[in-house]
Amino acid sequence: MFRYIVRRLLYAVPVMLVVSIIVFGILHIAPGDPATMLAGEDARPEDVAAIKAKYGLDQPLYVQYGVWLADVLHGDLGKSLVTRRAVLAEVTARMPATAELAIASLLVAVTVGMIVGVISATRQYSLMDHGIMIVALLGVSVPVFWLGLMLILLFSVELHWFPTGGAGTFMQLVLPALTLGASSTAIIARMTRSSMLEVVRQDYIRTARSKGLKERVVTIRHALKNALIPVVTVVGIEFGYLLGGAVITETVFARPGLGRLLVSSITSRDFPVVQGTLMLLAGSFVLVNLLVDIVYGYLDPRIRYE
Amino acid sequence: MRVTSLSTALLLLVVGVTTACAPSSPPAGQPSQSGQTAQPAQTAQSNQGAQPTKMASTDSSKPLVFVDSNEPSSLYPPVGTGPFGTVEYALFDTLVNHNDKMEPMPGLAQSWEVASDKVTWTFKLKSGVKFHDGTDFNADAVKYNIEMILDPKTGAGRRSVYTVIKSVDVVDPLTVKITTTDAFPDLPFLLLDRSAMMCSPTALKKAGVSDFGLQPVGTGPFKFVEWVPNDHITLDANPDYWQGKPKVSRITYKVVPEAGARTAALRAGEADIVLNISPNDLDALKKDSNLDILQKDSMSQVTSEMRQTQKPFSDPKVRQAMNYAIDRKSIVNDIMHGVGRVADSPGPPNVWGSVNLPPYDYNPAKAKQLLTEAGYPNGFDGNLFYVAGRWAGDDQVTQAMQAYWVAVGINIKLQKVDNAGLDEMLSRDPDTMAGWTTMQIRTSTYIDYHLYRLFNSEASHMKGFQRSGYTNTKVDELLAKGRSTFDLTERKKYYEDAQKLIWDDAAFIWVFAQQNLLGARKGVGGYELLPTGDVRLFNAAK
What we know:
The structure holds two protein chains of two kinds.
Chain A: H1 2-29, H2 34-39, H3 45-54, H4 61-73, H5 87-122, H6 127-141, H7 144-158, H8 171-200, H9 203-210, H10 215-245, H11 247-252, H12 258-267, H13 271-299
Helix pairs in contact in A: 1-13, 5-6, 5-8, 5-10, 5-13, 6-8, 7-8, 8-10, 9-10, 10-13, 12-13
Chain B: H1 2-21, E1 64-68, H2 85-91, E2 96-98, E3 104-106, E4 109-114, E5 120-125, H3 139-150, H4 159-162, E6 165-172, E7 175-180, H5 187-191, H6 201-212, E8 222-228, E9 232-237, E10 250-255, H7 259-267, E11 273-275, H8 282-287, E12 291-306, H9 316-324, H10 328-335, E13 341-342, H11 364-373, E14 380-386, H12 394-407, E15 410-416, H13 419-426, E16 436-443, H14 447-455, H15 457-460, H16 473-484, H17 488-505, E17 509-521, E18 528-529, E19 535-536
Parallel strand pairs in B: 1-10, 1-11, 14-15, 14-16
Antiparallel strand pairs in B: 2-3, 4-5, 5-7, 6-7, 8-9, 9-10, 11-17, 12-16, 12-17, 13-17, 18-19
């Protein structure tokens, strides 16, 4: 198992390298450049050129990439072109808000989704099952933006139960977690339901029942545990998405997170921040996927890693 | 049976937990976390430790919570020229101050005069003014600040406008001599601009431009305390402020990017003042008796600017037709909910020298006739590129304009781009942009600056954002004359004549003049909403 983990981590290196090249390439192919934006609309060409020279943006692309890579290998992710703060500082300042939100949303999604999915599966075709699946469909279809604003209007403005936004406290986490978790909840509910339905038809479930085990033990210890494998995959993917893609929720709730950082730095062509943030997100994704694979091994003894 | 009761129990548990976590009564005023850092941190790195703060509730002993949508890029004014002026107005002062009509008044300079040679200006400075770091504000500081702007290495965005200043000399600690290259009657207007705000040379030399932008030091009514990126900026009152101590002890500038969330914060009582309210929320907000809503004229105009060195846009009749094709009243009333005024001048609204002219009325028949006269009886094709999401209603206004143009046969295709993409397209050679137009917001603090950069033929052909290619030599002559004299009546006449020509030429499509919307809780007063869209909080009280 240890060797497996080490091997997976080593595989991550070429993956990250390729990601960095692709990101760098796409950023520079896109029209517009940070120097023009920094210089502003009154700038003359020589002012723009001065800014380009100042930040080394006039060098050939392979030189710029080489300089960036050399710095990264020394642990220096560079500085934001817009704020001149260290990229690492920009990212770490925003990690707490993003991590909180991703974990909270995932907790909501996993607990509610799994419970609801199991209920649905064990009462297939009942009114409750249909009801739950319709709500799940709504959860997936409802725009995050709209849901967030509706929750703010109801729970913050009318009821004064929660603050309208910001980050750092539990109260500020509730509404965003519900907003962001809604679609993940729906996905996990549906996934759990269909996976359970499949497992419940297996012979070993019939064996467990005929052994005289209580239905609750059959459902949870035997069926659910085996049904979890595809669900864990989905959870892993959802976590990756939540880490980097929560920009709409972060914008609506004014949370200083990585999603907003990424979008604003792409808009202002702040190359170092985009590169640094995406590399860190890619790294997180690799780690999460590794975790998911390890959890498989625990869930399914048939899966063994050499 | 068992499964049902277990799962039902679990569901109830989850619901019960989440309900229990919500308080049964509105939360009492929470202590603001921003009280932790009392001293300004010495280096930029120490900002990392500061935590995002809760929104404070409205209460007189609490900070004034000011909410806007824009995160500053840099708080060094020559570089940080974006739409976050409220913070800079709190931190800094200019040599030349201004009233709420942006007219010059004494500021850090008590008085100024220009010699008979028209190029030598002498500024007498206020004595006893200190920067937040305790160093003196004096003539050396003025010299250093202006020379920093002129230094290309600084990266000041408006450097090219300042090159009219040839030299700055210290006569004595409270007297500065500024020499311009040519007669430049608008020097006071230039020096009242945000980019001319005075920064502490000691702090600037020690930190360098980049780090100063993260730890600004000025002479203003508030001192910098902390900046948590994308969350808030904390400013404490400067008790030694030369115009008197501010009434609030602290300002928290919070960045809330979503208009709906800003409105919610105002209604929920979490924010004292909110800027950039969406016109869609106006009706609901006006009904709330706890709020004051301000709707004031700005200096910005929404325009469509065609590249006009090639047909079809090189023909004034085509441009006039496009102006007649649009129903501006409907755009303002129906899309903007009445927040705005129909455009009636090529000059910036509410700026001295702007002349009001008869608006282009909504006349599709005349538009078609003009098109036929210009040789396009069946209209023509064109493209409009724009950025959506920069101001409330921009997407809908642009689509409405396209619809009006299509109705008279001008088949404009819309192309949404992002800011960087727009900048790149605006910089292209207008000869390669036949049939292209864009949507812009134009704002300027003084008339010469506005007319020159948009309508002078040298400026409109220069490589940069303004290269529409508009050329009218008479306009060039009038603008040059306007710069050459200090006589206000004469200048006004030249600018009026220039604007009439530009208007009749239909150089651009002028749509409407924007208005600024501000919402405040009742009981909060003393704030000043400027036509630039910034708010001066020096006298604010709650």
